[in-house]
Amino acid sequence: MKLSESLQDLLAAYTDQPIPVGALVEVAGEQGFGIITGFLVLPMLIPLPVPLPGFSALIGAGVIVLGGQLALNRHRPYLPARIARITFPPAVSRSLLKNLSRLLRPLERLSRPRLFRISHNPTFRRLLGICMIWNALLMSLPLPFPFTNLAPGYTILTQAIAVLESDGIFMLISYGLTALTTVFFASITGAAWALLVRFIDGWRNWE
Asked: I want to staple 91 with a disulfide (CB 3.0 to 4.6 A). Which of 49, 96, 103, 173 is the partner?
């Protein structure tokens, strides 16, 4: 089943009540890594109708936990109680339901089960988990710059689809996207540091 179909069924059942992340674990089974990761990262890619303080840190923590389990080659996901108790208000569920097709269908049209020598290889799955952890850490950084959530967010979404579809090509693409995202964040850090040095030099000269 496609990620959009799995999430659509779940979200449709929770349009009028809060949806706990733990509910995903119960229905996802062995497909849980892809489904839960996709569900967690999607709110980072759309404007939310209600503010959720500390949301990005909790979401990042959830993805880190899932990535760690992939890196350890676990086959079924487990979420700590604190993360499993995270609930999405009905307004968020409706917003996700509305944006599912726009966010997922373009990627899903390109993805399919293939290159099983990579997608089923424990080493490549471990590497995917490590990349997922790294992208989640980048996504959680409180940086006041545009697109700092989108770049790692879409990379994690690609990884979620790769796991769910057993798509070795998408796995390889996600490694490349992780490298590009790292370069993007390094460029931002370098630019911010240069501005800070210039500001300090200007302040000293002004004195």
From this structure: 49
Range of the domain at 38: 3-206
* Cβ(32)–Cβ(73) below 8 Å: no
DSSP symbols for 119-187: HT-HHHHHHHHHHHHHHHHHHHS---STTTTHHHHHHHHHHHHHHHHTBHHHHHHHHHHHHHHHHHHHH
Mean pLDDT split into 10-residue runs, the chain, 207 residues:
74 77 70 83 71 69 92 86 79 75 80 92 95 93 75 93 92 97 90 78 67
CA distance 169 to 88: 32
Tokens of 187: 């460029």
Contact between residue 155 and residue 172 where contact means Cβ atoms under 8 Å apart: no
Give 132's Cβ-side CA count (13 Å radius): 35
* Stretch (H or E) spanning 205: helix 168-206
Q: Residue with structure tokens 């968020």?
A: 92
In the chain, the number of structural domains is 1
Smallest CA-to-CA distance from 120 within 53, 167, 155 is with 167
Kindly state the helix (H) or strand (E) to which residue 118 belongs, with its residue range: helix 116-119
